């Protein structure tokens, strides 16, 4: 098949900027936490855009927005593409959004060209990929893969609102979440377009890359309890300083991550009571561990547990650990990788294969269907930050590669 269908570049860019404005009014960056007022507004924007593109739109039981371009053979398995539009606190305008808006643009251009494809193509905007608000992500893709469990709805946000309540506020019935599950036979493949959020493509001076493996994250919540005493009246040898135990563990996590060639981060900390003249009696913090190899990641986690125990014993403090998330690392399907590569070739787009460090809905979708990912170069690798940027040209090339890939998969 010779693909002559072109995306409308300016139209895509306009939608990226328009969506980026939603949640950007009060502060630096864009903030659209899942199912917040801003997210709901953005969701409506996406629904309208899908309708404008001529797609048949439905919302599934967990709020995934799905727009369909009907193929000529109704029973043929569906080619699925998309990403998410929720963001972290003060995030950028490309993370997730490019994958949803790029997919809408690609499918819209195919429809406008009048090209008939055998397989239907569905564009999906997944609910709560980031997990920032309730501490656990991939809600939409997990529900679709049949991996969501009921306990998720008991989680609370910073204001004490449960996930179930947030669902009801968004006109979703949390009891029906199982209805979002799809069967393996329904789908042919899932392709996600996403910004790289790293510096590999920039280093190689390439606009797009093809993902081979995705690191799976483990998230732990750790609470260390020591004793809050007077900072003046308590000699050093008598202290049970919870913050020092945390600090020591943070340094150990760095060593462990380096030793295993993985990554480890403590990104969220809280010290109590939090007075200038009080020894910290409590330190609560998060741990994020990632590796493309599950076995290595398990070893990393075991070492972290050992370190916690060792440090607690030494400092006579006590720690509680709670695993908030554990997603297996995964590989992209060779078959889909090859279709993306072919598409790059026919478009004369130089590219490379690379690993993916961030988690994505594609990690979960790999359990349900053949999965592939197209990466677009990120400026200085900055993401989850107001400075997140991908150039116009790169976004266009990535989206055109997605279009060609979708047409090849759906022909
Ligand atoms: Zn993302």
TrEMBL record:
Keywords: Hydrolase, Metal-binding, Zinc. One of its GO terms (molecular function) is metal ion binding. The keyword Ribosomal protein does not apply. Binds 2 Zn(2+) ions per subunit. Zn(2+) 1 binds at residues 84, 95, 194. Gene3D superfamilies: 3.30.70.360, Zn peptidases. The keyword Hydrolase applies. Signal peptide: none annotated. Residues 215-313 form the Peptidase M20 dimerisation domain. It comes from the Bacteria. Its cofactor is Zn(2+). Zn(2+) 2 binds at residues 95, 130, 384. Belongs to the peptidase M20 family. This is Allantoate deiminase. It comes from Halalkalibacter nanhaiisediminis. The lineage of its organism: Bacteria, Bacillati, Bacillota, Bacilli, Bacillales.
């Amino acid at each position: 098949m010779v693909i002559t269908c072109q995306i409308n570049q300016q139209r895509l860019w306009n939608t990226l900027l328009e969506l980026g404005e939603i949640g950007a009014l009060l502060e630096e960056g864009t903030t659209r936490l899942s199912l917040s007022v801003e997210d709901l507004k953005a969701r409506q924007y996406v629904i309208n855009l899908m309708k404008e593109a001529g797609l048949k739109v439905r919302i599934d039981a967990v709020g995934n927005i799905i727009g369909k371009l009907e193929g000529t053979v109704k029973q043929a398995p569906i080619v699925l593409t998309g990403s998410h539009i929720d963001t972290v606190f003060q995030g950028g305008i490309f993370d997730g959004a490019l994958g949803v808006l790029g997919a809408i643009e690609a499918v819209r251009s195919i429809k406008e060209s009048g090209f008939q494809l055998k397989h239907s193509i569905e564009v999906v905007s997944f609910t709560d990929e980031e997990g920032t608000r309730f501490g656990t992500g991939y809600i939409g893709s997990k529900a679709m893969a049949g991996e969501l469990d009921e306990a998720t709805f008991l989680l609370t946000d910073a204001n004490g609102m449960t996930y179930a309540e947030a669902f009801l506020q968004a006109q979703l019935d949390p009891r029906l979440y199982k209805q979002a599950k799809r069967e393996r036979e329904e789908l042919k493949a899932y392709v996600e377009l996403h910004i790289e959020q790293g510096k590999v493509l920039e280093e190689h001076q390439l606009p797009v890359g093809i993902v081979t493996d995705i690191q799976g994250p483990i998230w732990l919540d750790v609470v260390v309890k020591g004793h809050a005493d007077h900072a003046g009246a308590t000699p050093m040898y008598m202290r049970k300083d919870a913050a020092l135990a945390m600090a020591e563990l943070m340094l150990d996590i760095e060593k462990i991550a380096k030793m295993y060639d993985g990554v480890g981060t403590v990104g969220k900390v809280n010290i109590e009571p939090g007075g200038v003249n009080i020894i910290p009696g409590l330190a609560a913090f998060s741990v994020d561990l990632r590796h493309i190899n599950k076995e290595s990641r398990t070893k990393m986690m075991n070492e972290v547990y050992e370190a916690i125990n060792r440090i607690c014993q030494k400092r006579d403090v006590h720690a509680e650990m709670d695993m908030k998330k554990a997603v297996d690392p995964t590989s992209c399907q060779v078959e889909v990788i090859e279709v993306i590569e072919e598409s790059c070739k026919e478009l004369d787009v130089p590219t490379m294969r690379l690993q993916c460090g961030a988690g994505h809905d594609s990690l979960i979708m790999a359990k349900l269907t053949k999965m592939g990912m197209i990466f677009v170069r990120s400026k200085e690798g900055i993401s989850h930050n107001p400075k997140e940027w991908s150039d116009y040209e790169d976004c266009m090339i990535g989206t055109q590669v997605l279009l060609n890939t979708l047409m090849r998969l759906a022909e």
